[in-house]
Amino acid sequence: MHEVSFHKRALCSLKRIPTARQRQILVAVKELSETEDPTTHRNVWAMMGEWRDHWRMRVGDYRVIFQLRPLESEGEAKRFRIYITHIGTRGDIY
Fold it and tell me: Half-sphere exposure of 30 toward its Cβ, with a 13 Å CA cutoff?
């Protein structure tokens, strides 16, 4: 399982989202952390341009923007820290 951490900005954004959507986003992030390779998740895409070291995950009308930071491997399984930097609607983030 991968570690998940939130930037302060992402936590503030999450608190302003309606409670039902907050739960949906947190469930999606948990599901992402439990996948073997987060980049192969069905709702995850690599970003381009100035965001090229970030990934985005679509959760309904919201986008979760994150970076993958490698952690020390345990055996052959590669582990990442999923560092969530932004959460919001498409128009608000990029």
Answer: 6
